[in-house]
Amino acid sequence: MAKYVNVISRDYGSWVFLGEILTNLSLSPSNPHTSHCGTCTRCIEACPTQAIRAPGVVDASRCIAYHTIENRGPQLPTQVANHLHNWVAGCDICQDVCPWNQRFAQPTDVAEFEPYPGNVAPPLEDLATLTEQEWNQQFPASALRRIKPAMWRRNAAAALAAQGVDMSAQQSNSES
Ligand code: SF4
Ligand code: SF4
Predict the structure, then answer these.
(1) Is the minimum distance from the CB of 81 to ligand 2 under 6 angstroms?
(2) DSSP the chain
(3) Where exactly are the structural domains of the chain?
(4) Residue 110 CA, ligand 2 centroid: distance in Å
(5) Distance of CA 12 from the midpoint of ligand 2 (Å)
(6) pTM over 0.85
(7) What is the tens place of the pLDDT at every residue in 108-145?
(8) Which of 60, 63, 125, 136 could form a disulfide with 51 if both were Cys (CB 3.0 to 4.6 A apart)?
């Protein structure tokens, strides 16, 4: 297990999908997953909110990924909002710096796993005023539907506010 608490594959790093198969076959369990980190602490040092409190211990209340995807409150906590680094749907900083990903991550060859073309690095200003109708058009069958329109607006506005851009006037015209 990674110190940022993901499974690390020696063949692919941690950017993998986890799946499951339901069966009535009697199967023998494989050996428990082992740690491949050694003395590396890159992810702990790179996390902008100090969410990795100890190897294998991530404090969700400090984690950008948790708050941008799961927190449905009207505001992000200040210590998270001030350190978004433009992340508005999850956060991959700890995985970006991981040597297992830098050496072994591979792009997918499954077309269905590719993002919708219009959703690659969309302008934060557009997300900060995302309407219900635009959300339905942009994320028709996407895991990103987990992030509701008001959450997109909140996250993008917080990322812009960290750059000194105030979107409150434009947001007052958006649907809730
Ligand atoms: S996802 Fe981002 S905020 Fe969360 S532990 Fe990793 S680097 Fe830190
Ligand atoms: S960055 Fe280093 S410490 Fe963190 S999970 Fe990867 S190998 Fe382990």
Answers:
(1) no
(2) --TTSS--BTTTBT----------S-----PPPPP--TT--HHHHH-TT--EEETTEE-GGG-HHHHHHT--SSS--HHHHTT-TT--S---HHHHT-HHHHHH------GGGSPPGGGSS--HHHHTT--HHHHHHH-TT-GGGGS-HHHHHHHHHHHHHTTT---HHHHTTS--
(3) 1-14+39-106, 115-176
(4) 27
(5) 14
(6) yes
(7) 999 988 888 888 989 999 999 999 999 999 999 888 99
(8) 63
